[in-house]
């Protein structure tokens, strides 16, 4: 299992990140990532993932019930910015 948190903000590093976890993964591995959109950074990463053969992935807006409740409270804060704070769960596997 590979865990990655909030590592997608630097778009130029996406290729190196993808290369690193694909080299580490075997058929039974899973890479779990949690990251906000940060503008178009998450979308750019997902588009890059789509080009990698033998990888499948899912994206979820709901992580756990507890985190979902915490996020609802954070949304009420003036400083809350969905693009910067709302976490997405990305699960990546070899296919």
Give a verbal description of the structure.
The structure is a single chain. The protein is α+β, with helices and mostly antiparallel strands. The chain has one domain (2-33, 41-94). 37% of the residues lie in helices and 24% in strands. The longest helix has 11 residues, at 14-24. The two termini are 15 Å apart. 5% of the residues are buried.
- Which H/E pattern describes the elements? EHEHEHHE
How many distinct beta strands? 4
Strand order, largest beta sheet? 1-2-4-3
Instruction: Estimate what percentage of residues fall within beta strands.
Output: 15-25%
Counting H and I runs of at least 4 residues, what is the number of helices? 4
Mean pLDDT: 93
Low-confidence stretches: none
- Report how far the terminal alpha carbons are from each other: 15 Å
- The oligomeric state of the chains shown is single chain
Radius of gyration: 14 Å
Main pleated-sheet profile: 4 strands, mixed
Shape: globular
Q: How many domains? A: 1
Structural class: alpha+beta
Helix content: 25-40%
């Amino acid at each position: 299992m590979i865990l990655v948190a909030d590592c997608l903000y630097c778009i130029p590093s996406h290729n190196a990140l993808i290369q690193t976890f694909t080299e580490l993964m075997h058929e039974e591995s899973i890479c779990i990532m949690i990251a906000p959109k940060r503008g178009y950074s998450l979308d750019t990463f997902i588009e890059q993932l789509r080009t990698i053969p033998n990888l499948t992935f899912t994206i979820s807006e709901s992580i756990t019930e507890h985190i979902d409740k915490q996020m609802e409270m954070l949304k009420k804060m003036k400083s809350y910015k969905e693009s910067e704070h709302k976490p997405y769960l990305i699960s990546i596997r070899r296919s």
